[in-house]
Amino acid sequence: MHNCEDVAVTDQSNFDDRGVFVFSENCADVEFLRSAAESGVERVDLDSGEYDGFFTADGERLRPRPGNEWNVVFEPTGEFDLESLRGLLRRAHDRGLFKSDPNEPTLVAREMLAWQWAHRWPRWPHWLDRRLHGDGPGRF
Predict the structure, then answer these.
(1) Using CA atoms, how far apart are residues 100 and 108, in angstroms rounded to an integer?
(2) Are 25 and 50 in contact (CB under 8 A)?
(3) Are 18 and 74 in contact (CB under 8 A)?
(4) Cα distance between residue 88 and residue 1, in whole Å
(5) Measured between alpha carbons, how far is 103 from 59 in angstroms, rounded to an integer?
(6) If pLDDT is split at 50, 70 and 90, which confidence band does 117 have?
(7) Taking the mean position of all CA atoms in its chain, how far away is CA 57?
(8) So what's the pLDDT on residue 67?
(9) Who's near 125: CB < 8 A, 6+ residues apart?
(10) φ, ψ (nearest 5 deg) of residue 19
(11) Sequence-ordered list of residues with C-beta below 8 angstroms from that of 116, at least 6 positions apart, any chain
(12) What pTM does this model have?
């Protein structure tokens, strides 16, 4: 799925503030990135076909492209496919990867952000952790 057909790229203003669902091969895993600008997707994994798709929570497909020799950045395509996003989330939900309703991507994103917050590592002393990471998970 990550080899989407070419679609005109839309305006990128405020795009980096949108979160991204990242689906790995055969939906074995799904991750929600709080920001498209903070992609942890590595180019070598993309090139090897490890990923099935990239979507925003509102269903826009994203086109991955090399950012540098290691990382990937995402471009909006303007192609919205909320049903495909919901289908991929449903498969992940059926595998027990999250509890939220897969038909509500925003709720799934919030659950994933809360989980990431609760399981972050390393755990710093409370005063330092709050300074580095704020008082709670990212808002979405």
Answers:
(1) 5
(2) yes
(3) no
(4) 11
(5) 11
(6) confident
(7) 8
(8) 80
(9) none
(10) -75, 165
(11) 32, 137
(12) 0.75
